[in-house]
């Protein structure tokens, strides 16, 4: 009798510890569709064949039980849809993720809720796939200790659209080309979108609020960013859009508002005989509208609306050659000229100089006094009767009087 009880107990424990979902995957034929009813399923599953796993109703939960990666995909033609995925491990060295997809193509990850997972969706060497309509948040950790919500590594020609990243770390597009990043939303992250060594990507109609940095492009080329809204990047150096060593970029119809630095330009364009086109953007109510660092020339800055910023132009490097950019037909609310012939073009150029109140640009200790009566008085006297030669930064030869 004791033997029978012990044997029954052994089979009960084995059943409780069994990964029934993994068994179903292993037994499924290629091309199968597994439609899961409401319930909690054990994670740490591996998908190595073309199949689909779809939650057929709300409440389908895949729980990683705080160990490793919850779902790992190593096959093309895989669909993961309408699931709640939770409880990855917390190790950065193994990139513990809700979903990790590698060496795949023509797969789809859509409509999922990802929470309590260090990294959200980790995509590497995966092409021609769709990642859409996912809600992603990380573990409840300090900002720098969270994992990235979405990562593309060496992955090309994917569509990443309508995802929502909340309280994650970064959305990363590195060494990845030809991707469409559109209509995503990011809030309370670090880099809401970060590119490195990535070319020919389309960044369209995304909205990013309350992140440290909106969109930052590094060491990249041939990319278009159009119709994006970046609002309230947080902190003393909160940035809207940053360009670092990039060439042949188009920034068009973007709105950058309530950031410390609106548009940051560092050694861009980088490649010889190339340009960047910065046109028809709204740069509104930032501490700094355009911030130039290091040598940055041959940008075409045209037909932008520059309104309500504390500073229109900041040049923190004496050799940045700000005046060698083509700056024309922008609207500047600080323009002090007239339009006597009514053609909506100012009769005189809009010139920007660096006066005494911008001593803090080169000495950050002085920034403590920025906006104080003493600095304001120095600035007034410098403009009224300059006691030092102000530094010429740029001129818009044809400023617009209205947009």
UniProtKB/TrEMBL annotation:
Naturally occurring in which organism (per UniProt): Arcobacter acticola
Pfam families (UniProt xref): NosD
SUPFAM superfamilies named among the record's database cross-references: Pectin lyase-like
Signal peptide feature range: 1-18
SMART domains per record: PbH1
Keywords associated with the record: Signal
Domain Periplasmic copper-binding protein NosD beta helix stretches: 132-337
Gene3D superfamilies, A to Z: Single-stranded right-handed beta-helix, Pectin lyase-like
InterPro entries documented for this protein: NosD_copper_fam, NosD_dom, Para_beta_helix_rpt-2, PbH1, Pectin_lyas_fold, Pectin_lyase_fold/virulence
Protein name: Copper ABC transporter NosDFY, periplasmic copper-binding protein NosD
């Amino acid at each position: 009798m004791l033997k029978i009880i012990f044997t029954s107990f052994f089979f009960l424990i084995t059943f409780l510890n069994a990964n029934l979902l993994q068994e179903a995957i292993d037994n499924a034929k290629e091309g199968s569709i597994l439609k899961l009813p409401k319930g909690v399923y054990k994670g740490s599953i591996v998908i190595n064949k073309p199949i689909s796993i779809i939650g057929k109703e709300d409440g389908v939960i895949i729980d990683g039980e705080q160990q490793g990666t919850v779902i790992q995909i190593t096959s093309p033609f895989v669909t993961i849809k309408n699931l709640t995925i939770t409880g990855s491990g917390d190790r950065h060295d193994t990139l513990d993720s809700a979903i990790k997809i590698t060496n795949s193509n023509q797969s789809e990850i859509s409509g999922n809720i990802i929470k309590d997972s260090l990294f959200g969706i980790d995509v590497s060497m995966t092409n021609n796939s769709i990642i859409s309509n996912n809600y992603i948040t990380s573990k409840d950790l300090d900002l720098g200790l969270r994992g990235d919500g979405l990562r593309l590594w060496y992955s090309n020609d994917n569509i990443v659209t309508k995802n929502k990243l909340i309280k994650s770390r970064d959305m990363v597009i590195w060494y990845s080309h030809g991707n469409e990043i559109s209509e995503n939303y990011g809030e309370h992250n670090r880099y809401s979108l970060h590119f490195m060594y990535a070319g020919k990507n389309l960044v369209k109609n995304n909205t990013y609020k309350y992140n440290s940095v909106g969109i930052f492009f590094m060491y990249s080329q041939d990319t278009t960013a159009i119709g994006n809204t970046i609002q309230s990047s947080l902190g003393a150096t909160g940035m809207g859009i940053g360009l670092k060593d990039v060439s042949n970029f188009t920034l068009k119809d973007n709105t950058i508002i309530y950031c410390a630095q609106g548009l940051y330009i560092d050694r861009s364009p980088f490649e010889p005989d190339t340009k960047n086109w910065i046109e028809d953007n709204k740069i509104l109510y930032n501490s700094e509208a355009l911030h130039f660092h290091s040598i940055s020339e041959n940008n075409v800055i045209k037909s932008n609306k520059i309104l309500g910023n504390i500073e229109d132009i900041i040049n923190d490097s004496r050799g940045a050659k700000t005046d060698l950019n083509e700056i024309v037909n922008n609207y500047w609310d600080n323009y002090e000229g007239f339009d006597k012939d009514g053609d909506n073009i100012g009769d005189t150029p809009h010139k920007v100089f660096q006066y005494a109140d911008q001593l803090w640009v080169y000495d950050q200790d002085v920034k403590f006094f920025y906006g104080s009566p003493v600095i304001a008085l120095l600035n007034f006297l410098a403009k009224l009767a300059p006691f030092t030669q102000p530094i010429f930064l740029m001129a818009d030869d044809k400023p617009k009087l209205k947009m």
